[in-house]
Amino acid sequence: MKKRFRIYLIIAGFLLMMSMSGIVTAAGLANAWTERTPADTPFSGVMFSKDDSTVYAGGSQIFVRSWNGDKHWWGWSGTIASMSADGNYVISAVDTHIHLIDKNGSELWIVGTNTPVRAVAISSDGSLIVGADDSGNIFSWGTKDESRGMIKTDLVKQIAISPSGTLIVVTTEAGITYFTGITYFTGITYFTPQLTQIWVDNKSGSLESFIEISSDSSTVITSGGNRVSSHTSSGVLNWRKDVTQNAIIDMACSDDCTTIVLGSQDGNVWVLNQLGQVQWKYQAGSWINGVGVSHDGSIIAAGTLDRNLYIFNQAGQLLAKTRTDTVIQPRSVAVSGDGKHIVVADQIALYGFELVGVPEETSRETYTPSTLFSTTITTPVPINTTLPITISSTKVTTLPVTTSTPKSALNPCLAIAALSGLLFMVKRRNN
C-alpha cells in the first residue's frame, strides 16, 4: 500500500510539473484595445512611430493614437497619407491639395498641385515632404511650406524618403527613380531633396510597388510582381531575384534590411536575408494581405485574407495565432520596433495586440538558396488611389475585445488539489 501511495504521489507531482510548465511556456496575443472606424469604413495602411509610442492608420479618415490611449484623434482623408517616423507630423492628400498636420491633428499648412495628388511621403523628422500628381509632376517642400524642387517624370506609384533625408526613391509606371547625391548614374533613378535627378533605371520595367530603405540609408529594397531587388544608395545593383510564385502583396524589412519579409498571393510568408537568399517560408493557405517586422527582425507578423494573424520569430517558429472579425486589409499589419506590440486592421476595426508569454517552438519549412526559382511575373494587386471626400472628425469609443492568452492544457489548480489530497491521505494513514 505504501508503494501505491508513493506511485500516486509521483504521478501527482508529475502532473503539477506539467501544469506549471504549461504556464511558463504558453504564448499568445492579448488584445490591448480595439478601435472601430467611423461608419464602419475600412482602415488602409498602419504604422508605428520609431519609439513605438504612437500608432497611425489611414483610410477614409486618418486615425492617430498613443498606445496607452492618452492621445487619440480622427480627421482628414487618409487614403493617400503617411506619418513621420518621429510621430510628430502627418501628411495627407485630398484632391489637388496636400495638408501637413501636427501630432495633435491640427493643420499646419496646405499647398496645391496642378492635378489630383497620387502619392506622398514625409521624412523621419518631418523636415522634407514629397508629393506627386496625376500629370507626372513631383514636388518637394520643407516643413514651413517652402518649395524645395519640382521635376516632371512618368506617373508615380510610390515614394519613400531615406532616414537620413538625403535620398528620395520613387517607383513609377516605367521603372524606379532615385533622388539623392551628387553624381549622375544611369539605370534606376535617384533624386536629391531638391529633385535633382542623378540616376534612373528604365530597364527593369514597372513591377516595383514597394520600397524599404535601411536605417543607415545605404540599402534600398524594392519589390513587385514576384521580384525583389536590392541596390546601394548610389544605384549599384546588389541582387535581383524572382522569389514568389504569384504576386507580392506586401513587404517589410528590419532596420538594417537583413530580414526581408514578403507576403504573396501564393499563400506564403517568405523571409529573405540581405543577400536575397530565402531563409524560410510559411504556407498559410490564403493570400498574405499584410506583413510587419520588428526593428531587429526578431518578431514577424503576417495577416491573411481568411482573417488569421500569425506571429513568428526570426527562425520561422510560430509563436502565436489569432483571428480578426473580418478580412484583414492589404498592407495593414505593423510590428513595434521592440516586437512587443502588433497592430492589424480588418474591414471594420483596428486591433492593438500585445505579445505575451514565452513562445513555444514549432517546426517550419526551411529553404536554401538553391530552391529559388524564376517564374512568369504576375501583375500585383493594384493599389487604390481613389481620393475620397473628406469626412468630418468623429469621436470613436474604444470597444474592448477579449483575446486572451492561451491557457495551459492542464489546470494547475487541479494538480495542486490532487497533490494536496494525496499528501493528506498519506499523512492520515501514517498516523
Helix content: under 10%
Largest sheet: 5 strands, mixed
Chain-averaged pLDDT: 79
Gyration radius, to the nearest Å? 25 Å
Q: How many DSSP E strands? A: 34
Strand content: 35-45%
- How many DSSP helices? 2
Query: Strands of the largest sheet, in order across it?
Result: 14-15-16-18-17
What best-fitting shape do the alpha-carbon axes yield? globular
Calculate the terminal CA-CA distance, rounded to whole Å.
15 Å
Low-confidence stretches: 7-26, 181-187, 358-419
The structure class reads mainly beta
Description:
A five-stranded mixed beta sheet has the order 14-15-16-18-17, with no helix packed on it. It has a five-stranded antiparallel beta sheet with strand order 23-24-25-26-34, with no helix packed on it. The protein has helices at residues 2-25, 412-430; strands spanning 27-36, 43-48, 54-59, 62-66, 72-75, 80-83, 89-94, 97-102, 107-112, 117-122, 128-133, 137-142, 147-152, 156-161, 168-172, 175-179, 185-186, 199-201, 210-213, 219-224, 227-232, 237-242, 248-253, 260-264, 268-272, 278-283, 288-293, 299-304, 308-313, 318-323, 328-335, 341-346, 349-357, 365-366. It has a domain at 1-26 and 414-431. The chain has 431 residues and is mainly beta.
